[in-house]
Known about the structure:
five-stranded parallel sheet; alpha/beta
Amino acid sequence: MHTLSRHVAVIGAGASGLVAARELRREGHSVVVFERGDRLGGNWVYTPEVESDPIGLHPNRTIVHSSIYQSLRTNLPRELMGFRDYPFAAKEEEGRDPRRFPGHREVLMYLNDFAGEFEICEMVRFNTEVVFVGLVEGGKWMVKSKRKTSDEGLEEIYEAVVVCCGHYIKPRVAEIPGRAASALDISRDIAGVAKEVHISSRSVASETTEKKPDFATMRLNGMINGYDNMSLHSQIKSVHEDGSVVFTDGSVVVADTILHCTGYKYHFPFLDTNGIVTVYDNRVGPLFKHVFPPALAPSLSFVGVPWRTIPFPNFELQSKWIAGVLSNRIALPSKQEMTEDVRAFYSSLEAAGKPKRHTHDISDSQGEYAGWLAAQCGCPISEEWREQMILTVAKNWVVRPRTYQDEWDDNHLVLQAYEAFRNGV
Length: 425
């Protein structure tokens, strides 16, 4: 099959955009990466700045790109976090954080190392925001961008667009708060300085419901043990002007501050597909395997849509697949077959009682998903040590919810990981 070299726009220079750019260039494509900030790293570039609207609802608010907080440490070990062929190995160098679960600055340093190793910065236009992406004749894309230092915009034509801008900009402010992974870590940090911390979670049963505790609830229960000033509650029923918060289990507390740890919404304000790709109840669709919209494939694709997964290796496999498809080296199913696959996937979610907003939650199928992508790309299947480590880390979250980042029982797997890194496996 004759391979093609295409002119490709990559939107975003975070982790997904960096590995997408590398894989696209490896495949022989011409690549331009648009990054509205002045540094690469995306969400991993920490800033103490806060938005002008504390809950992020005002359309004209000052937007802060990053959602990470100053004390953040990774909740995954570095052996699992890194790209497959560029491990996130500890470096015993001045200014580096060699911990197995490092702070966010170390992750940013790793991404800078990655970009330097593969000369990615030469493809990046910093301080350049994409304001419009739309279809033009011939199935190509008009990309309009604007530099921060200029009032004039630039219009260019690309044969393909890869959206890698993440989904941590538009906050999901729930009428009834839920809980996310950040709630666990932030609550623990706040407990050291606050008089009381009350955690509301939809997974906690109220007086009128009986519900088997899920994985996150078990973590929450384990985490609050030992903290006299932390309490776990069911969902919030109502909030009143005097600060009183009423929960569905009947309990009431008076709060000075309500902190929403309810995640973010998918948001692509620059993208105009004439209604072909939509975001409804936080479902981006239709997308074949969370990547290609069937009617626009392969010229439009998304990297990093799935959540509750191990992100960097997932970005890498998605990017390899996209790059190979664009070059004609890897064949996609027909548009009809992809559309039918998406419909069958949606039907399976509905039959399982999974809400639309959890369409891209692949926590129950991430191994299967990664294996499918690897097979499409002709990549080796996941190593045994990696699969075992995923299981031991998840177990440790439950057994040691407060200390899992500093105590573990899988040193034998860590040794296997570093042996694999040395051997280039």
